[in-house]
Design goal:
The protein is α+β, with helices and mostly antiparallel strands. The protein is built from ten helices and 21 strands. The structure holds flavin-adenine dinucleotide (FAD).
């Protein structure tokens, strides 16, 4: 039984079914759930992870998967628009941008270094005066995340995964042996193995992980544009704008003219059922950023807001592990604001862990109850912004 039908749960259920298991996938519903972190219009897919070659390689493996999904699926849901990384000063050794660029070069990629004048020439919406350095990362882009989850769920159904609407309340167990789950209606749903993929809800429903995982609210804004074509393609790739200092990142316009702007900051710890609203002060900060960096968007109307939840782990790494104290229970969560891109490989990792098989990636995602920030991501959670 897989609990939670976000990208972790859907990919895991599909993989296990393809390995021949009988699989039930439960979620509170509706599916895809509108509050799930995975259910948004877009997510970045990039190999740029500072000096952290582990995640660079994991993303590289995932990118092969995105290409495969694009070839196999009726709609291309991954857009290989590249990834624009720009900085307010010169990129410096030790900095996220410099190190990401270095790793790309060392691994045989050809990121294009871009100065301010070149930025303004190629991507006219950008104020190149403010961004004297940066590069265009050649392999990356963004995925239509909500549509990807919907597609995976359809594939689950076609493959024979039993999809059920139920809200998980607790593990059902005899001693330390897991026997299934108990739902909020009091029903026991039997299963030989339970894999909890409840994203930011995981620390709420698996309380012994509250020291390891937490739900953190992060603001997302959608700005409306009249001419979407001015804000996409090579003129407007998905971007990280001095992200280790500022937190700002964003996406090309969708067909219905929405430019999404996110802020990778500390966020604020919340109960996942009550994440609150986007703080109006955050909208002001976003407008300041746009006026300085993307002047054509400075007056664009806000056409949508969303509070999305990171499931932050103590160290920024995913948690994909067997519970050492509960036989038959696996937890797959702790996306820490950067795991959607791994969708094509995540199901394989979780399934290997559940089967007890060796896996190239799983050691880093092992069970843990203490630690300090390890990923570049976790380290550069920005001190700016009002959503703290
Ligand atoms: C603002 C924001 C921006 C992000 N940007 C990026 C990005 O650009 N690139 C990237 O790679 N990643 C990004 N991420 C991270 C990425 O979205 C997550 O890591 C990933 O989607 C997590 O997927 P999940 O399946 O673990 O969780 P979710 O998608 O949240 O799924 C959890 C599921 O569990 C269900 N559930 C919860 N409680 C219960 C219960 N009691 N019973 C039954 N079902 C339950 C929910 O309904 C939900 O469907 C971002 C996240 C946020 C919040």
């Amino acid at each position: 039984m897989v609990v939670g039908a976000g990208v972790f749960g859907a990919a895991t259920a599909l993989e296990l079914r393809e390995r021949g298991y009988g699989v039930t996938l439960i979620d509170r519903g509706p599916l895809p759930h509108p509050d799930a972190s995975s259910t948004d219009i877009s997510k970045m897919v990039r190999m740029d992870y500072g000096s952290d070659v582990f995640y660079h390689e994991l993303a590289e493996a995932a990118l092969d998967g995105w290409d495969r999904w694009n070839a196999d699926w009726p709609d291309r849901l991954y857009h290989d628009d590249q990834f624009l990384v720009i900085t307010k000063g010169l990129m410096e050794p030790g900095g996220f941008e410099y190190e990401s660029h270095r790793v790309l070069l060392e691994r045989g990629y050809a990121p294009e270094r871009i100065g301010g004048a070149e930025l303004s020439r190629r991507c006219p919406a950008w104020n190149g005066d403010r961004y004297p350095d940066g590069y265009l990362s050649p392999r990356g882009g963004w995925a239509e995340s909500g549509a990807v989850v919907a597609r995976l769920l359809r594939l689950c159904q076609e493959a024979g995964v039993h999809l059920a609407t139920a809200t998980f309340e607790a593990i059902a167990a005899t001693g330390s042996r897991v026997r299934g789950v108990r739902s909020t209606t009091g029903e026991t749903l039997p299963a030989d193995h339970v894999i909890v993929c409840a994203g930011a809800w995981t620390p709420a429903v698996i309380p012994w992980l509250r020291g390891t995982l937490k739900a953190v609210a992060q603001p997302v804004l959608h700005f409306g544009v009249e001419r979407p074509n001015d804000f996409r393609g090579r003129r407007f790739p998905p971007f990280a704008a001095d992200i280790s200092g500022s937190g700002w990142y964003g996406f090309p316009a969708t067909d219905d003219g929405r430019v999404k702007l996110g802020h990778h900051g500390n966020g604020r710890e919340v109960h996942p059922d009550h994440p609150g609203e986007v703080d109006p002060r955050h909208v002001e900060l976003a407008r300041d950023f746009l006026a300085e960096s993307l002047p054509p968007l400075a007056g664009a109307p806000v056409v949508g807001t969303r509070v999305c939840m990171y499931c932050d782990s103590i160290d920024g790494d995913l948690l994909i592990a067997r519970d050492p104290d509960r036989d038959g229970l696996v937890i797959a969560a702790g996306g820490s604001g950067h795991a959607f891109k791994f969708a094509p490989v995540i199901g394989g990792i979780v399934a290997d862990v559940a089967e007890g098989k060796a896996n190239r990636w799983s050691d880093r995602f092992a069970w843990r109850t203490s630690g300090s920030p390890r990923t570049e991501e976790a380290r550069f959670h920005s001190p700016t912004g009002t959503e703290r």
